[in-house]
Amino acid sequence: MKSITTKRIGDSVHGFLNRPTFVLLLLVVMAGCGRQEAGVSKLRIGADGNAEAFVGQSFPVEAHVAATTTISEAEINIRPVSGDGWVFNGPFSEGIAGKKDATFAARIDVPADTEPGNYTLTLRVIDADGSVSESTGDFRIGIDSTVPIAGDLDVGINAAGNDLHLETELTVPGKIDQVTVEIKGDAWSDEVTFAGDRLVGQLAHHFHEHIAVAEAPKGDYRVILTVADQRGRRAQAEGTFTKK
Fold this sequence. Notes:
Layout: H1 9-12, H2 14-17, H3 20-34, E1 39-45, E2 52-54, E3 58-66, E4 71-80, E5 88-92, E6 101-109, E7 117-127, E8 132-142, E9 149-150, E10 154-157, E11 163-171, E12 176-185, E13 189-194, E14 204-212, E15 219-229, E16 234-243
Parallel strand pairs: 2-8
Antiparallel strand pairs: 1-3, 3-6, 4-5, 4-7, 7-8, 9-11, 10-11, 11-14, 12-13, 12-15, 15-16
């Protein structure tokens, strides 16, 4: 029968473990393992860090952040690499404030009227002692041709004040699922959903509908039209009217 011999590691290195040099080295290593380098690292912009975003959609920003004391808050600044374009500045503290190190995660909404192009994002972390660390990365904002588009919304109310006219052009590569119209006022609101056979499944549609608003009292109203495609993506168009 084959025998197996075991040896306690402590027996063979007993003399070495007693050496003052080893003890000092061990203390240095342990101290180094417990120290977290302050700053911003592993900055990732876009889905899977692909450095891409799209007009009218949100995109993720992730990074590892650490402070010498504790984290007070973070700030994100976005600006065009050159020329004119979208500028964004925003503070973030959720999930990181009061911690010594943490994973920063946020989603940034790109406005629908953003100019496509190359942009620079800077993530700054402010310590409780006022010191600042930052990391910068470039990314591109493009146009996703697969998302729904709602054109300018034409809104009008008739002289009798009981019929609301709505008209716009809808382009929906993912096919229309439904259109919802919200009417919001200080004292009255309403919501109407359109999902008829001549609308659902269409790639493009000239939306022209009328909504009864006889019950609405006099006042100013905001109209929000939302078109949703069959993958759940949405586009909106807005307008206003006054009932006298």
